[in-house]
Design goal:
Blueprint: H1 3-9, H2 12-16, H3 23-35, H4 39-47, H5 54-70, H6 74-87, H7 96-112, H8 116-133, H9 136-152, H10 156-176, H11 180-192, H12 196-213, H13 216-232, H14 236-252, H15 256-272, H16 276-292, H17 296-312, H18 316-333, H19 339-350, H20 353-360, H21 365-368
Length: 370
C-alpha cells in the first residue's frame, strides 16, 4: 500500500515503525508520529529529514509545524515561521506549488495569533499563486483564510468580493472533487456563507467517499466537522452521535491528539445542551488520554477546560482539584501556565479569594497574581 493511502486509512503505527529509507518514507513517518501524539519523536525525525528538492524542503518544514501543532505548541510554530520570514528563504522558492503550501501555512499561523495584517499579506499572496496554478482546492484554502482576515480587519468592500469568489470556488470543489478533505473544506465554506442547503449534501458526500474507500482518518475528520455543522443547526443529539463515531475511529487508530480534540468537542456539546456534569466527566477522559502522552501542553490544556466546565456547572471543589493539578505541573516542570490567573479569577467569582486559596491548599497569589 502506498504511503499516501496508509495515511488516509490511518495506519500510523505501521508507518511509524518503518525504516526511513528515503525522503518520502521519512516524511510519512513524521506525519504518522505526529498523529500518534509522539511529538518529541516526530520533531526529532522532522529535523533529520534530508530534502533534495524545493518541494521536499517545504514538506520538511510543514511536517515540523504539523508535529508542533498537533500537541498545541503554537508559540514554537510562530517562532519557526518568523525565522523563515527573517531569513528571506521563502522568497527564494521557485516551485510555486511548494511556495503556496508554505505561504498558506504561514498565513494560517499568523491568523492563529491574530496578526491580521501579516496574515492578509500572506493569504493574498497564496491566493495569487493558487490562481496562477489554476488549482481550485488551493484557491479555496487561501480564499477561506483571506475571507476571515478581511472580515476581521473590516475591509468591507474587499470582503464582499472575496466572499463571492469563495462561494463560487466552494461550489466547484464540492461538486467536482473526490478528496474528502477538500469537500469538507468546501462544505465549511458553504456553511459559513449561510448556504446550509448546499453545505449539508457536501458534508454527506465527503463522509460517503471516505467511508466507501476505507479512509478512516479522513472519515473521522469529516464526521467531526459535520457534527459541528449539525450542532450549529440545532440538532444536538445527532451531533453528539456523530462526534462519538469520530471518537471511536480516532481511538481505534490510536490517534491520541485527534481523540483528545474530538472528546473535547463532545464535552462542549454536552455542556451546550445543559449536561454540564456529563461534560466534566467526559473531560476526565481527555485528561487521561493527554497524560498518556506525557505532554505538558496537552495535559494543561485539557485540565484548563475541565476547570472551566466544572466552574460553569457550579462544582467549585472539583474545578479547584483540576486547578491544583495544573499548579503542581507548573511547579514540577518549572513553568507558569498562563491559564492559572484566568482560572483563578473564574474561581473568585464563585467564592471568596481566601476560601479559594484555602481549598487549593497552596498560596498562589505571589506566583500568579490575581
Amino acid at each position: 500500500m502506498e504511503l499516501t493511502e496508509m495515511l488516509k486509512t490511518g495506519r500510523f503505527g505501521e508507518l511509524a515503525a518503518l525504516e526511513p529509507t528515503d525522503f518520502a518514507v521519512a516524511h510519512a513517518r513524521v506525519i504518522a508520529l505526529s498523529r500518534l501524539g509522539k511529538a518529541d519523536e516526530a520533531r526529532a525525525a522532522a529535523e533529520k529529514l534530508e530534502p533534495h528538492t524545493e518541494m521536499e524542503s517545504v514538506q520538511a518544514v510543514l511536517a515540523l509545524l504539523d508535529a508542533l501543532q498537533t500537541v498545541g505548541r503554537h508559540a514554537e510554530m510562530l517562532d519557526t515561521i518568523r525565522r523563515l520570514r527573517d531569513s528571506g528563504s521563502v522568497d527564494k522558492i521557485t516551485d510555486e506549488t511548494a511556495l503556496f503550501d508554505l505561504v498558506s501555512k504561514r498565513g494560517e499561523i499568523e491568523q492563529m495569533f491574530e496578526m491580521e495584517n501579516m496574515a492578509y499579506e500572506s493569504l493574498r499572496k497564496a491566493f495569487e499563486i493558487a490562481h496562477r496554478l489554476g488549482d481550485p482546492v488551493r484557491m479555496l484554502i487561501s480564499l477561506q483564510g483571506l475571507y476571515d482576515t478581511v472580515t476581521a480587519t473590516h475591509r468591507e468592500e474587499e470582503s464582499g468580493k472575496v466572499g463571492v469568489g469563495l462561494l463560487k470556488i466552494a461550489r466547484k470543489v464540492a461538486a467536482e472533487s473526490d478528496a474528502p478533505e477538500a469537500i469538507v473544506r468546501a462544505a465549511e465554506a458553504l456553511g459559513s456563507m449561510s448556504t446550509d442547503d448546499e453545505a449539508e449534501p457536501a458534508y454527506l458526500r465527503a463522509v460517503e467517499v471516505a467511508r466507501q474507500n476505507g479512509w478512516k482518518w479522513l472519515l473521522a475528520n469529516a464526521l467531526l466537522s459535520y457534527s459541528r455543522f449539525v450542532e450549529f443547526n440545532g440538532v444536538e443529539d445527532s451531533a453528539l452521535d456523530i462526534t462519538e463515531e469520530a471518537c471511536l475511529i480516532f481511538r481505534e487508530l490510536a490517534a491520541i491528539p485527534a481523540l483528545i480534540m474530538a472528546t473535547d468537542q463532545k464535552a462542549m456539546q454536552l455542556a451546550n445542551s445543559g449536561r454540564g456534569a456529563d461534560a466534566v466527566t467526559v473531560m476526565d477522559t481527555v485528561i487521561e488520554e493527554a497524560a498518556k502522552l506525557n505532554d505538558v501542553f496537552l495535559t494543561v490544556s485539557a485540565l484548563s477546560k475541565a476547570v472551566s466546565l466544572a466552574f460553569e456547572d457550579g462544582e467549585l471543589d472539583r474545578g479547584l482539584a483540576y486547578l491544583r493539578r495544573i499548579i503542581d505541573i507548573g511547579v514540577e516542570k518549572g513553568i507558569k501556565p498562563p491559564a492559572v490567573p484566568v482560572l483563578l479569577r473564574e474561581a473568585y467569582r464563585l467564592e471568596q479569594r481566601t476560601i479559594v486559596h484555602e481549598k487549593l491548599g497552596v498560596s498562589v497569589e505571589d506566583e500568579f497574581g490575581d
